[in-house]
From TrEMBL, chains A, B:
Keywords: Detoxification, Transferase. Its EC number is 2.5.1.18. It catalyses: RX + glutathione = an S-substituted glutathione + a halide anion + H(+). The lineage of its organism: Eukaryota, Viridiplantae, Streptophyta, Embryophyta, Tracheophyta. Residues 89-232 form the GST C-terminal domain. GO terms for biological process: toxin catabolic process. Belongs to the GST superfamily. Theta family. This is glutathione transferase. PROSITE patterns: GST_CTER, GST_NTER.
Length: 244, 244
């Protein structure tokens, strides 16, 4: 039975899982669970993931959720996946786990918290929360700085001094691409002080093309929609963040 | 060269790593990095973990931090560790990763956020934050309910329907033992609706004795200190949470 991947491409960890499968030639059926339609909470999906989150997979008898766990499982279960994605070497693997754990409590709440509370909330029926956005902004800025000065060492193209991408590169870069939803000036304010981070995002994109752009298409369309709404004054203007 | 473990037993992930080493007969030197004295930010420790967090380990040339990454590495690198802690079976292992990932964004911020903002902050030179405590209370209560109804399935003694503990049991239980620092009535309010959770904490304690109690000794002493302070009226009284 073919692998089933339950996703919404607007969700950053969903994008990471889909790109990973495509890049590594893993055959799968992609099943849309629309977050905008709240399908993740529908009874049919509760049988797949009772906690109501995407991405989730079904592979034979295994039902699994949490994107890092999924990426590790796919790397281990599908022989077509090259070693660099999740190395057999214990020390290299340990460092990848370390980055992924750090991601959970730093980059993820920073990036997702900022985008949700400064731009995305209204389209999910929630109010914008400037105080939460300000807190997330600080965590995101600190996390970007840690990426720039610590995780992206030396002149290597990818995290942890590697010249080939791992699941950590893909997961973290897909987290950061959601910043595309911000006003362009605000996105530049956040990213441009971190030249290595900008180059690393581009390196990861190139290493996973054409799938990277194809899977992100929905996000780029949403970006255009938000830009139009900004012009019409129905979403926060650039710089609202600095007024808080 | 013997494994070096940099910890403060007041930190819940530090306790998990120390108990794990002791239970599995892993020889190690324990080096105290006192959080109260802010030694995690000292230049000497920055060479071990530039991000200034405990626990961290040094094993030969490998420097590693993030407790889940450490527990996975130790399980893989030390042959004395029994399979049930981190099974070779891909599906079982995947489920353990899934619980550990869930822990990062649910139980951990719930438990640690609540204890910090309702009790611990003043002893770290920080103000109590009732609003943050209230938010963490909700996340903790929801997480305990998810543990009770989802992760602790059927009548198994441990997470994921297992009859032997894994690194996930140890990590999550050590997270929850910090609730000992709360006023006893408040701790009972949080835990007592979750009978399976209470039994599972006790099962994990028993499976890792005598090390569990020995490593938690510092926490029990801190609990007594807080109780005394409560009697003297220098820390928040029981039930202050319900007034918010």
């Amino acid at each position: 039975m073919k692998l089933k991947v339950y996703t919404d491409r607007m969700s950053q960890p969903s994008r990471a899982v889909i790109i990973f499968c495509k890049v590594n030639g893993i055959q799968f059926d992609e099943i849309l669970i629309s977050l905008a339609k709240r399908q993740q909470l529908a009874p049919e999906f509760k049988d797949i993931n009772p906690l109501g989150k995407v991405p989730a997979i079904v592979d034979g008898r295994l039902k699994l959720f949490e994107s890092h766990a999924i990426l590790i499982y796919l790397s281990s279960a599908f022989p077509s996946v090259a070693d660099h994605w999740y190395p057999n070497d214990l020390s290299k693997r340990a460092k990848i786990h370390s980055v992924l754990d750090w991601h959970h409590t730093n980059l993820r709440p920073g990036a997702a918290g900022y985008v949700l509370n400064s731009v995305l909330a209204p389209s999910l029926g929630l109010p914008l929360d400037p105080q939460a956005a300000s807190k997330a902004d600080k965590l995101l800025t600190k996390s970007l700085s840690t990426l720039e000065t610590f995780w992206l060492k030396g002149n290597a193209k990818f995290l942890l001094g590697s010249n080939q991408p791992s699941i950590a590169d893909l997961s973290l870069v897909c987290e950061l691409t959601q910043l595309q939803l911000l006003d362009e000036k605000d996105r530049v304010r956040l990213l441009s002080p971190h030249k290595k981070v900008e180059q690393w995002i581009e390196n990861t994109r190139k290493a996973t093309m054409p799938h990277f752009d194809e899977v992100h298409e929905i996000l780029f369309k949403a970006k255009q929609r938000f830009e139009k709404q900004r012009e019409m004054g129905t979403v926060p203007k650039p710089g609202f963040q600095s007024k808080m």
